[in-house]
Specification:
The complex is a heterodimer of chains A (232) and B (453). Chain A is α/β, with parallel strands linked by helices and 232 residues long. Chain A contains 7 helices and 10 strands. In chain A, 35% of the residues lie in helices and 30% in strands. Chain B has 2 domains: 194 residues, no CATH class; 142 residues, no CATH class. In chain B, the strands form 2 sheets. In chain B, strands 3-4-9-6-8-7 form a 6-stranded mixed β-barrel. A 4-stranded antiparallel beta sheet of chain B has the order 2-10-1-11. Chain B has 453 residues and is an alpha+beta fold. Classes of the chains: A alpha/beta (232), B alpha+beta (453). Chains A and B meet through helix 2 and helix 3 of A and helix 1, helix 11, helix 12 and helix 14 of B. Bound molecules: adenosine-5'-triphosphate and magnesium ion.
Chain lengths: 232, 453
């Protein structure tokens, strides 16, 4: 089987220091994630799941250790290089969707293209195509407050994938959704994973639901990898 | 990111907060408007003075005085005098026709005419006015020094013609100046009455307070009307009744215009109180001045006066700059405040933009574009405001001046550099004001900005 590593971490540590208090959010994380897998990360609240995802997404920097994505050490990148990595290398979605509420769905999806220097007329076309793929083309002119939670998350997924990254990082994307909609969102992620070989790292509380779709689960506890299990 | 994207993003952000954007821009508008109006006024005055100097050929003018207390020339307060360059030797020669012949021969001198003025009563129909009549050679009346609004200059030095200033029209109750041309007016002068002056009987003369003067009336034909005398400054023209020298000689008059002339008299001769010289070029002013001073006379060059005026304009400009600095500082605090508020409100939006790949410099530029858009808006509106205010002030001033019979006058000047400079200045100030907010925005930590609570 071809199991090309797309994400690899080595002795990854993250310590938050707020005043005199130090919180070790992640301790010596060593992870390999193969290209095209669907990984679910589970763990109690405060176990460091979001911290890990933010580090993998280039939103934050580790205190020590190395993160390699597609062969590039993002833990050693400059702020400018990290911005490029976030722009083209990964897409992220969040529990609270994080859409700009004053902009329409299609404008939200277009936003990464603005920073990617794509021509205005191509932007609209690409964004609409992407919205179509997540099934939201008819709602493209609606603003986030006019959309349901599931629809907003679809817009967020479209925005995360508009620059065609190889990796999608999802931090509890179903945390604000009911079980039916949660399932639909995970089905969409699984479909994208299978159809395009998109590597998905999903943080979820709902272990049972996540196991239905994930190929692999990672259990975190107090900032350490506690368990690792191949589901299929 | 493309420039058009920065502009589009910035404008849409500003538009979302219209009221605040316009209030902040309004601060800039007021400052720029006041500045534009003030600078426009200063430049307008400067331009007016320069132009009237130039059009009257005053840069080519030089006035010669006999050495001594030659201070009563402009009728100003003696403590506040134009800078007459006194001959250091003092007690020099008399300024008479002989001296004039010498002055005429100097290199660079185009024409010379003595300043002769005498008091006279001007009568037209039943109106009377007391005036100093000035004697002006015919060739000067056809020079740039005199701008005739009606009629023509003196054809010869001997005709019994008179040119009147527009300032005399109202006192003489003349509604239509054109109808005045060709009409006769009466000039009545005062002279010694030797028949009444009896030295043997001086006591009775003093007792009766009977002065040894008589009044003689002469008829003159109005040939022209000039408006240029409204300029109250140091022009060689100091009167609004002008007659040629030939006919002036025939008039019996007092041989002096003021008491100082009497003090200057030497060997029983009075000489002229002043002589006006016109040069072929302003460049000759310094050399001619030196030669005349060597002859023992004092000189006064209008160019020197003009340079003084110019220095005072520099002081005015500096004052303006100081006021502008304070005002612009306040306006820029407004911009900084608005931009920092905007960062706090858009904290999560900045985080989102960073998460989808905006770099620090992208964010920075978006904020720079926003603050400079405020500045640009404020600058353009300020320019318009300044212009409108200047139009109103100009109207008001001219309304009151018109009541006094003065012609319409443009007090403001808006050269292109002022208009472009005002807007550029507003943009520059807002850019500088944007430095700190843009830096703050660029350093927003996306992890904190995106945390859901
Ligand atoms: N900016 C920060 N400053 C200080 N401590 C932090 C910060 N961010 C996270 N932490 C701490 O790090 C630990 C890991 O937090 P993290 O958000 O990664 O947990 P999590 O697994 O995502 O929890 P949840 O399931 O509730 O989202 C927690 O103890 C948290 O308090
Ligand atoms: Mg979390």
């Amino acid at each position: 089987m071809d199991s090309k590593k797309v994400i690899a971490t080595n002795q990854l540590c993250k310590i938050y220091s707020t005043g005199r208090v130090q919180v070790e959010a992640l301790k010596d994380i060593n992870l390999d994630i193969d290209q095209g897998t669907f990984v679910a990360v589970a763990g109690a609240s405060g176990s460091g799941k979001s911290t890990l995802l933010n580090l993998l997404g280039g939103l934050d920097r580790p205190t020590s250790g190395v993160i390699e994505v597609e062969g590039k050490k993002i833990s050693e990148m400059t702020r400018e290089e990290l911005a490029l990595y976030r722009r083209f290398g990964v897409g992220m979605i969040f529990q609270s969707f994080n859409l700009i509420s004053s902009r329409t769905a299609v404008e939200n999806v277009e936003l990464p293209l603005v920073f990617a220097n794509v021509l205005k007329r191509d932007r609209r076309q690409r964004a609409e195509k992407m919205l179509d793929r997540v099934g939201l083309l008819p709602r493209r002119r609606h603003r986030p407050p006019e959309l349901s939670g599931g629809e907003q998350q679809r817009v967020a997924i479209a925005r995360a994938l508009i620059n065609e990254p190889k990796i999608l990082l999802a931090d509890e994307p179903t945390g604000n959704l009911d079980s039916r909609t949660s399932r639909e969102i995970l089905q969409l992620l699984a479909a994208l994973n299978q159809a395009q070989g998109l590597t998905v790292v999903l943080v979820s509380h709902e272990v049972a639901l996540a196991r239905e779709f994930a190929g692999e689960t990672i259990g975190l506890r107090d900032g350490r990898v506690e368990s690792r299990e191949r589901v299929r | 990111m493309k420039i058009s994207d920065y502009i589009g993003l910035s404008l849409s952000n500003l538009w979302k907060r219209k009221l605040r954007t316009f209030l902040t821009a309004f601060g800039v508008t007021v400052v720029i408007g006041a500045l534009v109006a003030m600078v426009g006024f200063g430049k307008g005055m400067q331009k007016n003075i320069t132009e009237s100097f130039e059009s009257l050929d005053l840069f080519n003018s030089l006035t010669v005085f006999p050495a001594g207390p030659a201070t009563q020339r402009f009728g100003f307060d003696p403590d506040d005098q134009a800078p007459v360059e006194k001959n250091p030797r003092g007690g020099g020669p008399i300024l008479d026709d002989e001296a004039i012949k010498k002055l005429e021969k100097l290199e660079g001198v185009q024409s010379v005419f003595p300043e002769i003025r005498f008091p006279a009563l001007i009568k037209f129909k039943d109106a009377e006015e007391l005036r100093l009549v000035q004697v002006i050679p015919a060739k000067i009346t056809s020079s740039k020094l005199i701008k005739l609004s009606l009629g023509k200059p003196f054809a010869s030095d001997d005709e019994d013609s008179v040119i009147l200033g527009t300032s005399l029209l109202r006192p003489l109750k003349i509604q239509d100046p054109a109808s005045l041309l060709g009409q006769k007016i009466e000039v009545a002068s005062i002279a010694f009455d030797f028949s009444r002056f009896n030295p043997m009987n001086i006591a009775s003369f003093l007792q009766e307070r009977q002065l040894p003067f008589k009044k003689t009336a002469y008829e003159f034909t109005v040939i022209g009307v000039t408006s240029a005398i409204s300029f109250g400054g140091p022009s060689p023209l100091q009167s609004d009744v002008l007659i040629p020298p030939g006919s002036a000689r025939r008039i019996e008059k007092l041989p002096f215009a003021n008491i100082w002339d009497l003090f200057r008299a030497r060997e029983g001769r009075l000489g002229y109180s002043a002589v006006n010289i016109r040069l072929s070029s302003p460049r000759d002013v310094d050399s001619v001045k030196r030669e005349i001073q060597d002859m023992g006379f004092s000189t006064f060059a209008l160019v020197d006066q003009f340079n003084q005026v110019r220095t005072s304009f520099i002081y005015m400009d500096m004052m303006l700059a100081a006021v502008a600095m304070i005002a612009i500082f306040v306006a820029s605090l407004g911009i900084i405040n608005t931009m920092v508020m905007s960062i706090l409100e858009r904290y999560s939006e900045i985080g989102i933009m960073k998460a989808v790949g905006a770099s620090d410099s992208d964010i920075q530029k978006i904020f720079f574009f926003e603050s400079s858009s405020i500045g640009f808006l404020g600058g353009v509106c300020g320019l318009a405001l300044g212009w409108v205010v200047s139009r109103i002030i100009n109207r008001v001033i001219n309304f009151f001046l018109a009541k006094q019979g003065l012609p319409f006058f443009e007090y403001f000047s808006f050269p292109l550099w002022l208009c472009l400079g005002a807007v550029a200045f507003a943009v520059l100030v807002s850019l500088v004001s944007g430095i700190y907010p843009a830096y703050r925005a660029a350093r927003v930590d996306p992890v904190i900005a995106l945390r859901h609570d």
